[in-house]
Structure formats: C-alpha cells, structure tokens
Amino acid sequence: xxxxxxxxxxxxxxxxxxxxxxxxxxxxxxxxxxxxxxxxxxxxxxxxxxxxxxxxxxxxxxxxxxxxxxxxxxxxxxxxxxxxxxxxxxxxxxxxxxxxxxxxxxxxxxxxxxxxxxxxxxxxxxxxxxxxxxxxxxxxxxxxxxxxxxxxxxxxxxxxxxxxxxxxxxxxxxxxxxxxxxxxxxxxxxxxxxxxxxxxxxxxxxxxxxxxxxxxxxxxxxxxxxxxxxxxxxxxxxxxxxxxxxxxxxxxxxxxxxxxxxxxxxxxxxxxxxxxxxxxxxxxxxxxxxxxxxxxxxxxxxxxxxxxxxxxxxxxxxxxxxxxxxxxxxxxxxxxxxxxxxxxxxxxxxxxxxxxxxxxxxxxxxxxxxxxx
Length: 373
Fold this sequence. Notes:
By secondary structure, the chain is α/β, with parallel strands linked by helices. Helices cover 48% and strands 14% of the residues.
C-alpha cells in the first residue's frame, strides 16, 4: 500500500459519484437495457432548471450549478440540465410557480419563500430556534420529514428534494444598534419565512427581497436591516459597506435547508435509473454545501473582522427570549388553523424533542468545553 497521503473527502466524493454513475449509466446504454428495471433505451433528455439565486453566487448559485452537473454525470450523459439563474427565465421568487406550471422542469430555491402558497412549506427551510443542519437532515431523511414535504407539495404538482444546507446563519446587518425590544419597533428588515412573521409580531416590518435587491435597499435606507445567509455570502454581496453592525446568532435560521423541486409530470416521465440519478445528485449537493458553508463562513468572518473592521454584536437576551415566545405562539396558532401545518409541526417538534437530549450531551456539551484558540 502506498504511504502517500490520501484526500479522503475528495476520494469519497469522486469515487462515490463515479461508482454511482457507472451503475446508473449502464441503464442509459441501449445495449444494456436488459439489466435495467425499466428496460428502456437511452434517449437524451434535457431539463430546464430555474433558481432563486444570481448566477455563480457562492454556495447557492454554484450549488445549483453543481446539482445540474452531478445529474449529467450520474446519468452518463443521457440527461442534461440547463440552468437559468434568477431573472434569466423567471424572477427569483417565481421559481415555485414556474416549475409547477411546467415552464421549467426543475427549480432550486428555499421553501420558506412559498408560505403564501403552502404555509407548512416553511418547516422544510428553517424554523426559528429549531433544527440545526445535521438535525434537519435527520428529520428529512430518517424522521418522516421528506414524506410530509412531498405531501405538502403534491397539490401543486411538485416533487421536492433536500438539495443543500447553509448551516446556522447570522442574525443580520443593522444600521442601528439593538439594545432592547424597543429598538425592534418600526424596524424595516429583509427577512423571509417564519422569522419575518416573528419580527412583525415584535413590532418590526418584514420585507422579502431577492439577493439582487438587498444591497441597494439597505444602502438607500429602504430597509434598516437585513439577514441574508452568513459571512461567506454576506461578504460577496458587500453588505459590510451598507450597514455597520453585524448581529448574531441567526435565531431565524439555525439550519437552513435548500430545495430542489421537480415538476411531477417531468418526474414521472423519467425512467427509474434517471430518477435515482436526480436523488443521488441532490444528496451529494446537500453534503457538499454543508461542508462548503462551514469552511467558507469561517474564512469570510475572519476577513470581515480583520480587513473590514466589522462590529460583531450579540442580540440582547431579552430580545431572544421574546422572539422564542413569539415563535411558540405563532406555531401553535397556525397549527390550530391549518391541519397540514399542524401535522408537519408535530413531526418537526417530535424530532426536535428526540434529538435535543443527545445533542446536549454530545456536540453541544463538547463544543462548550473546547479550548479557545
């Protein structure tokens, strides 16, 4: 055996995709159709994928592009996915409708954008003070979350998949200090999903904006504050030039899952080996994105502090406690009014209750004991 060091992550990623591609592409070879469950010949398939992100935007835009690339490689070239970034085919916040009506076969976005169409969709993005990225994957892949997600999207002719996670986000950029609950009153902040509703209940005004409009809105005073993702993406948007204070923690998005949604008719038309290619590609992108955000957020935070003199601030305890209480009230109220919301809430809560005790005596406890750098 060679004594040369091996990059295990690169080896596993490359070998895993190569191995899966070898198996899946055999089904795309006409001479091998006898070995395929569907027994179909290899006919080229081209999908359109629309996204909510700017083209090549770090993590989000590049993650969507990687998903398209993985599908092509896993299919052995039988299937190609042409990517359209936000505003190239449809506006960023119209991805859901575009895929639902068949304008595009696939979309990449975040589910909390669609709360007006399916309130329970918000759970599959992130819930304030809820599941972390690792816990979110546990719920979706092992705790029944994905099955519920597909039930929520079924009336819209969509099949959803987890396709990335940006991890715990930051609290956001503010042009005024937050010293108490009084400073939330009248605050105009770009913040989607359940977090936006909590801000509204606390006296603020939530605004939903795509990435392309955030900087200008913050710089011109159209909004007073914004959360976006975390240091890596925030640095890319240059938000440090538009606001002075950078707050933590990202109470509104402790583990933000991204989604790939597929038009149901397009999905049903795929042979099983290409359906498998899509599923495996989504799982690979989820793993890649978690690792990518963990690393690059750390690098970018160091850069923001050392090169741009960004002021990091923690939210006051009273603000966090009030937001927690408002979150509980909101979830209970919505559950009482919407049976599907109640079912998803119950599953999410049960998963959190199951995972919390182990997290407390494993990662959470150990991280508090680690020697400071």
